[in-house]
Structures are given as C-alpha cells and as structure tokens.
Amino acid sequence: MSSLAKYYDSQQSERKWYQAWLDKNYFHADEHSQKPAYSIVIPPPNVTGYLHIGHALCMTLQDVLIRYKRMDGYEALWLPGTDHASIATQIVVEKQLAEKGIDRVQLGREAFLEKVWEWKEHSGSMIVEQLKRLGCSCDWERERFTMDEQCNRGVMEAFVRLYHEGIIYRGKRLVNWCPVQQTSLSDLEVIHEDVEGAMYYIRYPVEGSDESFVIATTRPETLLGDTAVIVHPEDDRYRHLVGKRVVLPLCDRTIPVIGDDYVDREFGSGAMKVTPAHDFNDFEIGKRHGLQMINIFTDSADINDNAPVKYRRMERFAARKAILEDLESAGLLVKVDKHLHSVGKAERSGAIVEPYLSDQWYVNVEVMAQKASDAVRTKEVRFVPENWEKTYFHWMDNIRDWCISRQLWWGHRIPAWYCEECGHITVTVEMEVQRCEKCSSAHIRQDDDVLDTWFSSQLWPFATMGWPGSTATLEKFYPTSVLVTAFDIIFFWVARMIMAGYTFTDQKPFQEVYIHALVRDKYGRKMSKSVGNVIDPLGIIDQYGADALRFTLISQAGQGRDIKLDIDRIEGYTTFVNKMWNALRFTLHTMPEHPSSQLPENLAISDAWILGRLNATIAEVRRGLDGYQFNEASAAIYRFIWQELCDWYIELAKHRLYKGSDEEKAGASAVLCHCLLTSMKLLHPFMPFVTEEIYQQLPGHGESVVIDHFPVELDLSAHAEPIAVMEKVMASIDSVRSVRGEMNISPAQLLEAYLITDDQQLQAAASQYSDYFMALARVQTLHRAQDVQELRGRKGMVSAVTSYGEILLPLADIVDFEAELQRLQKEYDKVYKDFSVYDKKLSNEGFLKKAAEEVILKDRHRHEELKAILEKLQTNMAQMKEHL
C-alpha cells in the first residue's frame, strides 16, 4: 500500500506546486521559439484593492486557455499587469490621507504622488499574490503597469502623434464635471439614477409687454446662466414673439426669444430656457445661434461671480433654495410638481455631476472609428458570443469626440507646455522641456492635467510588448490571440483598443473577443456590499482550495448566461477532488510490482470501452475549449472521471485487479493508470494543482503536467466492435440500476433478471460478461427470456427498457409495493405541506410588495426545489400503483 495521504491537502499542494512551476520558469514564453504563437494580455486589474469574484472568473478562463495552448504545442504568452486607475486610485489615497488629517493640496503634487506610488507598490504586489493563489500561469518576467516607463513611453508617443496629425485638439466644450474630485468625466463614468425630485414652473415676462412664458425646469439655479428662450418657429402661440426679449428672473438683464425646431411644441408650454454652459442640448443650440455661454459655477459647483451678487459663493443647492424663495416672493414661481427624473452621479465619488464649460483635450475618434467598425463587420475581429457585436456597433455608430484630460494628479501628465509669451503649445515626447519650440522663451509651463485612464489602457496589447519600439516580443506575439473580458467595458476598453491597434500598428490588437458572464449570487442577484452577498475568492480558496473555486466558475461559464454562484456547489467540487484522490489511492494500491501506463496489446472489452469513452472525452474537451464552450468542456471531463472511470470502469476492473492472473492484473492496471494519467492532462487547465499532484504519483508521468502534451485521440478502429458491444451492456446495466433506485432496493439485495432482445451481440455479451451485471447492477443471474408473455403477466414484474432491448425484474418478493407506496405517499404529503406554504406566500401580492427581494428570491428558489421533488415522487408512486 502506498504511503499516499488519505486526504488531499489543497493548501500544501498549491504552495508547493506553484513555487515549483516558478522555479522551473514554465510560464515564460520564448519570443525566439519556432512554435506557433498564442498570446493573451490580461485585462489589468486596478491597483485599488483586492480582486473580486468577477476577476476570479475572468482570470480563470484565461488561464484555462493558456494552459491548454501551452500543452498543445504553442508558445503561449499570458502577459500580466495592473492599471493605475487614475481617479479611483487618487480617491483611495486621498481618503487615507484625510483620515490622518492630511489634505492633498496642502501636501503638494510631488509629495502626494510619492504617497500614491507607495500605495501602488503595496496594492499591486497584493494583486499579484492573489493571482498566484488562483493558479494563474502568467509570464511574470513580463509584468507591466500602465504607468511604468515602457507604457509611459507608448502613451507619450501616441498623444504626440495624434496631436501633430490634428486628431487630438484642445477646445472649450461642455463636459461632465465632478465637483468633489474637480475633474471632467466621460459619459461612461457617470451613473444615471431615477430620483424623486420636483419640476419648477417659472414665469419669464416678455420685455415691454403683459405677455410671458411659463418654463419648466428641474434645476432652477441654472436660470442664472440662461441666454435665450426658444420656441418652435411654426408655433402659432409664440411666432409673434420671436425676436422679442424676455426679462430674466432675478437677474438684471434680458435675453432673446429665438425660433428653433428642436422644441417639441406638444411638451409642456412649448417654450424652453437655454443655458448653453450647463446643458448638453442647450450647448448645441447655443452654438447654432451664436449665444453667449455664461458659466455660473466654480470648480466645486459653488455659484461664481457671473451671477448676481446675492448668490455668489453659495453652494449650488443652497443657491437653489434661495432662488426659489426669491422667485416666490416676486410672484414668478407659478407651481411646483413632484417629478421623477434621471440624475447623473460620478461613478467614483457619488457626487451629482454638473454639465460644465471647460477647456479640455479631445480626440476626434470619428477618424479612428471606421477601420475598427469594419474589422468587426468583416469578422477580422470576432466577438464570442456574436450578439455582443450589437453593443459594439451601438457605441461605434454613435461615437463622439473623446474628452481625454482629467483634472487630477495621478496619471500620465499631458505632454503639452504653454508659452507665456507667444501662447504657443509645445507638444513633445521629451520629458523635460526648457524652452518654447516656437519663440525659444524659457517662460513655459506644463499642462497640469493628466490623461484619462483609458487613453493608456487602449495601448495595452502592444505598448506592453515594446511599442513604439520594434521588439522580438511584439513581432512574435502581436496581434494577440484573444481578449477575455466583461461586457461592461466593450466601449470603455475593447472598442478603443481596436481603434488604437489599427491607428498605431495598422493591425488588429486581437483576433477574437470572448465576453464572459457576470457572477451573481445563488439567487441571481448582483453582488454588492450593501446587500451583503459579496463572495471573497481568497476566502473560498482558503477554505475549499483554488481548484474547487476554478471548476465551479468554469462549469457554469456558458455563453450568454450569468453565473449563479452557490457555496454548496463549490463544496461539491471538493468532493470531486476527493473522488480523484481516492481513485489515485486505489490505483496505487492495486498496481503490480512493476507498474506501467503502457497499454497492453490485448484489451479486455471493458478496457476498449473506457478507452473509447476517453477518446470521446478528449474530442469534447478540445471542441469545447476551441469554441469557448468552457462549461461543456468541463462537463465532459467531469462526467468521464466521476461516472465512467470511477463509477464504472474501476468497478468493472476490480475482478481482474483482485482475482485475475498476473497478465490480467497488469493489463487492467495499465489501462487504469493510462486513463487516470490522461484525465489529469485533460483536466489540468481547469484544476492545475490537484492534477499535478496526482500526475506526479502515476507511472509514465513526465517532468510536469504543465509542459506535457495535451491528449490526442487513440486509434481504436480495431476495437470498434467490442466498444459497441460494451455500450449495449452498459445501457442494460444502467437501466437496472435506475429501477433499483426508483424502487428503493438495497444494494445488498441480489436480483434475478430476464433479458428480452433480438440483438445477437447483446445476447452473447449478457452471458459472457455476467460478472459485470453482478458487479454493477447486483444481478446474480441474467436469464434469457423464453416465454415472454408469461413473464410479463407475473405479478410484481418490473421492466427496465433500453434502445437495445428490455430486462424484466421479478420484484414481488423483494419490494412491498403497498408499503413502498405508503412510504412515498407519506413523503409526498410532507413535502407538499412545505410546498403549499411557499406557494401561498408567492401567490400573495401583499407579500411580494412588502418582502425584501432577498427573501422573495430565497422562497422562489425553495419553491422550485420542492416542486421538482413532488414531481419525482409522483412518478415513483405511479410506478408502484402499476404493480398493486
């Protein structure tokens, strides 16, 4: 008996093998290799904390692909790294400093950046360790950071090129403004929420007339920046007022009435106020009509000096209150209605965003978008699943100029220097600029702003490999093979990488984009701290091991279907690990003195069958991985190991292993070793640690499963007939086992059975392999049925049917059908009582309205479970009644 431990120790195994793999440098990809290249760049996690369960899914899927391709003869590069996450990281560090009573501005830019770099080193190294705990086989020698020297060089080169080509420009335009962080935000960094607010109806008197307009707004403070009232030019109610002026309430000025067909005559009063500096639609109207653009806010969204003296320096919502009071006193507030409307909030700070007129840097992405759109339309870049192309085209077909400047300190500082004498802007990749390139003045200053995080992230596939230089890594591994990512950054990142790839390298950045699912809790809810349903992947790994977590995620990673993560399921896959461990212990225990995994020349019928099933599994796993059907690939190898190898073949082989001749024992042992060793190779991309542990214990193993060859199908053409025969035998055995389960027959109870079939192969096999029926179906004698009609007429004769024939089981003296029916009925009544409670609750409208979502989801989940149990019990009771 081998000294192998009784139980598998995941913690010890994971530490041991990951370090061994690192020591052997297995994960490093050789850019000079003659093997075909396969490459993935990791979606770089933000250096803002811990990895979450969504990261665990994304990283696991990439590792599956990389390990598979590495074993399958490719030079496989998985390039890791982290993202500086400009605004998110700055917020984290600012909060940490604030807790110590330190203000960022008082600290100063350079000292603050030192603090951020300290945080980055701490957080970045923590993320790397978490990836290693998960088993990620990244090429750590090539680890990159979006603000390291190499990436910074690429970012500066990209900015300067686009600027000198006229694609990047500086302009005063309306942006989303976060008054807390005091920076511009992209549309995608603004989260819109429906808020119960108010609609205010304000009277605007026409100058020199008794007439007036009543105009509705949800933001009355913005009237301080109004520069026009617009009406539809064909609106008979107001046509005569076009060209007149109205008195702007509370302000010592008048504004024009203009006609514009933007106005919906049927909405409200048919008249609108125009605030070009604080509304995106109004900004476009203002440009069309040459209206003055009056900014009324400071960077912190207080009222500035462009407003009447009374409101200056007021916080925006305090100003709103004061303005409403003054409007009411002046008789200009007509009415106030409750109103549900959408409010934009900054994703990171949570502050209500203001449309704000500001000088910013922009990219004219329209000139970059055409090639990127065409690439997906022509399938040069392919989305999997394909339906995500619609999301991609929605963004690309409605693309607008991209504001890339951010009023932050952490990030790539914009390489632009302003001359204080001639006004020229020097844009260059040089890090230290001393003089204006136009007038040579030394009075220059660098732009204080940094670039949007996504500007650097768009260069990730090629900047990480050495661009703008020409490197062997870039030559070998770019374009990359596939990008694995989530749907929520298709435009944030995926589209921009495709645009950047064609713009800067004249190539696609990757061949395929695999969009994975979201990980939700077991009730289908999105995970969030507020709900309290967040699952920490590191906690799961500590308790259950990385392999169980990985396999749980992979097994549910079906295309287009979100994952419902249940701890019970993770625990279930630890049972799978233990099943394999016990199979290894059995294999080692039954080995001959000189074991081998070399297949014998003469195969028993069960040997041929299991090798045929192994062939089919190899094909299924390859097909699943090649088509990104991760769940189907994992289901195939799980089914083979658990059901076909452990539950069937080992039981079939026991007779030879324990009682056979030396030759029979050696043959069965060799086949078992071969199947287990091959299974570990197949399973390795999914469960890297336990497979290496088992692989190393088996005869015929190589240096490491990491670098062994991925299995290919054997030529079993000479064994086609015995495999077919065995399939029929197995189907017959399975049908008997099903009856035993349904009738609650003890495994200790031996059965008589009668075979009815015209299949000559099955007739011969039933006699020849009767020991299989004994071992797996507990059938002591399998008779050839003679008088079929008489047999069918016997009381208590139960039929087990397959596509190859029928087996009759005389159970009258074995099963008390009446007692069994009573037992089932009692069980049914008990389950039905519980089911009725849930059914009544879920039919109660009052309960559905008042109960917490979590409670409702749990109850629905249990309701469905009980319903399935009732249906099964009904089926079994019907069978019992047939034999009374």
Automatic annotation (TrEMBL):
Keywords noted in UniProt: Aminoacyl-tRNA synthetase, ATP-binding, Coiled coil, Cytoplasm, Ligase, Nucleotide-binding, Protein biosynthesis
Q: What top-level class of enzyme does the UniProt entry assign?
A: ligase
**Which top-rank group of organisms is this from?**
Bacteria
Ranges for domain Methionyl/Valyl/Leucyl/Isoleucyl-tRNA synthetase anticodon-binding:
607-754
Task: State its Enzyme Commission number(s).
Answer: 6.1.1.9
Q: Which InterPro entries match?
A: aa-tRNA-synth_I_CS, aa-tRNA-synth_Ia, Anticodon_Ia_Val, M/V/L/I-tRNA-synth_anticd-bd, Rossmann-like_a/b/a_fold, tRNA-bd_arm, tRNAsynth_Ia_anticodon-bd, Val-tRNA_synth_C_sf
User: Where found?
Assistant: Cytoplasm
Question: Where is ATP bound in this sequence?
Answer: K529
Question: Which Gene Ontology terms cover its molecular function?
Answer: aminoacyl-tRNA deacylase activity; ATP binding; valine-tRNA ligase activity
SUPFAM superfamilies given in the database record: Anticodon-binding domain of a subclass of class I aminoacyl-tRNA synthetases (SSF47323), Nucleotidylyl transferase (SSF52374), tRNA-binding arm (SSF46589), ValRS/IleRS/LeuRS editing domain (SSF50677)
Provide one Gene Ontology biological process annotation: valyl-tRNA aminoacylation
Domain Aminoacyl-tRNA synthetase class Ia: start-end pairs: 16-566
Domain Valyl-tRNA synthetase tRNA-binding arm, first and last residues per copy? 816-881
Listed GO CC annotations:
cytosol
Reaction(s) this enzyme catalyzes, per UniProt: tRNA(Val) + L-valine + ATP = L-valyl-tRNA(Val) + AMP + diphosphate
Similarity comment: family membership: Belongs to the class-I aminoacyl-tRNA synthetase family. ValS type 1 subfamily.
Q: What does this protein do?
A: Catalyzes the attachment of valine to tRNA(Val). As ValRS can inadvertently accommodate and process structurally similar amino acids such as threonine, to avoid such errors, it has a 'posttransfer' editing activity that hydrolyzes mischarged Thr-tRNA(Val) in a tRNA-dependent manner.
What the entry lists under HAMAP family is as follows:
Val_tRNA_synth_type1 (MF_02004)
Assembly, per entry: Monomer.
Q: What is known of its domains?
A: ValRS has two distinct active sites: one for aminoacylation and one for editing. The misactivated threonine is translocated from the active site to the editing site. The C-terminal coiled-coil domain is crucial for aminoacylation activity.
From the Swiss-Prot or TrEMBL record, give the protein name.
Answer: Valine--tRNA ligase
> Species name for this entry?
Desulfurispirillum indicum (strain ATCC BAA-1389 / DSM 22839 / S5)
